[in-house]
Specification:
With about 260 residues, the protein is mostly helical. It has one domain: Orthogonal Bundle (MetI-like fold). Helix content is about 65%, strand content about 0%. It has 15 helices and no strands. Helix 1 packs across helix 14, helix 4 crosses helix 8 and helix 4 packs antiparallel against helix 11. It is globular. The two termini are about 35 Å apart. About 5% of the residues have low confidence. It is a multi-pass membrane protein. Keywords: Cell inner membrane, Cell membrane, Membrane, Transmembrane, Transmembrane helix, Transport. Belongs to the binding-protein-dependent transport system permease family.
């Protein structure tokens, strides 16, 4: 499993002639290229308007906005559906759940039209906002909240806890494994988004993400391979750091 990753890394740190002549040569002499420092900080030889550092920043903003926004909206919508007496709550839940049938790829043109009309093209808001609806997250939180013991709810009422305090002091702590699990999954999904950033970043390269940059500049050079390595690192780090919480959240274990 690690062999392709190692091959990409070695390709990114060697000149093209060294890589393509007789396969990968595991030498670190004069052929080694300090490519990562140049890709992250310099425009010359890579792009005239943007560096990989800027693209990494754009990817980070998009992934964090994507994951944090989905977690917050999922938590609040499930909280409202379970603990507030809403008319047609079940119908509203299934209406939200039905939105899984309409991923961004199926509504790409009307979504683009709305973003264009609102003047959000080539902005961070345009990158993140149309992707925040999270039916699956709402479903998981709703099912989890329904499993919270009634005694806990009664104890909170006796202590005089209002809706906001009940949410912050009780539900959020016991939901922490699920929140972190959802954060890890949605961070990876947000980081790897390709089609929507391709549509939104219409003028210039200022809002290119790393995935978008790989498509634009290709992987035929060691610079492109360096982009591929940089694009793999943050999702791997997030999953590695949150793997314990990811397992707990997936199996529904409470803290």
């Amino acid at each position: 499993m690690l062999l392709p990753v190692i091959a990409v890394f070695l390709t990114s740190t060697h000149q093209n002639s060294v890589v393509s002549a007789d396969g990968l040569q595991l030498t670190w002499g004069s052929e080694f290229v300090p490519v990562y420092g140049r890709v992250l900080t310099e425009k010359a030889g890579f792009s005239q308007t943007i560096t990989a550092g800027t693209m990494a920043l754009n990817s980070t903003v998009m992934a964090l906005g994507f994951s944090l926004g989905k977690c917050l909206l999922s938590l609040l919508s499930a909280y409202a559906l379970v603990y507030f007496r809403l008319r047609f709550a079940s119908f509203l839940f299934w209406l939200i759940f039905a939105s899984l049938l309409l991923p961004i790829e199926t509504r790409i043109l009307p979504s683009f039209q709305v973003v264009h009309t609102l003047g959000l093209l080539n902005t961070y808001t345009g990158l993140v906002l149309p992707l925040l609806a999270a039916a699956m997250g709402t479903f998981f939180f709703r099912q989890f909240f329904k499993s919270v013991p009634d005694e806990l709810i009664e104890a909170a009422r006796i202590d005089g806890a209002g809706p906001l305090r009940f949410l912050v002091d009780i539900l959020v702590p016991v939901s922490l494994p699920m929140i972190l699990a959802l954060f890890a999954v949605t961070f990876v999904l947000g980081w790897n988004q390709y089609l929507w950033p391709l549509m939104v970043s219409t003028t210039g390269e200022g809002y290119f993400t790393l995935v978008r940059g790989i498509e634009r500049f290709g992987t035929a050079t060691n610079y492109g391979m360096a982009l591929a390595v940089l694009a793999m690192l943050p999702p791997a780090i997030v999953v590695f750091l949150l793997q314990k919480w990811l397992v707990k959240g997936l199996v529904g274990e409470q803290k």
